[in-house]
Design a protein that fits this description.
The protein is mainly alpha-helical. It folds into 2 domains: about 5-130, Four Helix Bundle (Hemerythrin (Met), subunit A) (Up-down Bundle); about 140-220, no CATH class. It contains 7 helices and 3 strands, in the order H-H-H-H-H-E-E-E-H-H. The protein has a 3-stranded mixed sheet. A hairpin with a 6-residue loop joins strand 1 and strand 2 (about 180-185).
Length: about 230
């Protein structure tokens, strides 16, 4: 099923802003070691600015603006909303095939950032909700596309940049709630079956691996994604 990225981007940036409004900015974010809710919001807003710049200037060279260290909640929420709105405006205005700097040398088009920023925002909205209570479940189709993005874009980039060795045992991921499967690496396959959301969170180091085959747990412990 094709995903409609721009409405999804508006939805998840609004979701993040709504949850942030009223949050305890000092609360720790479990899966972002050392980060508080404030840190998470500043990171995501900065990434939105950076991605917009990658489209408008076809360059990754941007130091994002940040709210002041003493900024209160209202100011931080307003800053985040401006950063998100700027990204949405850029991606709505630019044709999907417009030239852009991206993380994928084989896909230098603005449409890359529509997908990437949905996944970035949805994951960090999940982080934020988890820091404050119980995160909302993922839509299975979106979660599975996130797995495919890692397999097709993020993992190859990590290998290309020398951040992780190429997986020498194949890691086969099979979702139980949508159709499909994907394999990372080569060699004898180690299979992990679970919902698309759990598979996505396993890849991004946001799920427990203790019950998995130790070979799969070892492979998933690597930096398959940034």
């Amino acid at each position: 099923m094709a995903l409609d990225w721009l409405p999804l981007l508006r939805h998840h940036t609004d979701r993040f802003a709504e949850v942030l409004d009223g949050a305890d900015l000092a609360a720790p974010v479990a899966h972002c070691p050392g980060w508080s809710v404030r840190d998470l919001a500043v990171h995501l807003g900065g990434v939105h600015q950076w991605a917009a710049h990658a489209v408008t200037h076809q360059s990754p060279s941007l130091v994002p603006s940040e709210p002041g260290a003493a900024a209160g909640l209202d100011e931080l929420v307003a800053w985040y909303r401006r950063s998100a709105a700027g990204l949405v405006e850029v991606l709505e205005s630019a044709p999907a095939d417009a030239p852009a700097w991206t993380l994928d040398p084989d896909d230098r088009a603005a449409g890359f950032w529509r997908r990437r920023q949905v996944h970035e925002t949805a994951m960090h909205a999940w982080d934020l909700e988890g820091a404050l209570g119980t995160p909302r479940p993922y839509d299975p189709a979106l979660a599975w596309d996130g797995v495919l993005e890692v397999a097709g874009v993020m993992y190859p980039r990590q290998v290309r940049l020398g951040r992780v060795d190429a997986v020498t045992s194949a890691l086969r991921l099979v979702p139980t709630d949508v159709a499909g499967e994907v394999t990372l690496g080569a060699g004898a396959p180690v299979e992990v079956r679970d919902t698309a959301e759990v598979l996505l969170r396993l890849i991004w180091h946001r799920a427990d691996t203790s019950a998995l085959d130790p070979r799969a747990a070892s492979l998933l412990a690597g930096a398959l994604a940034p």
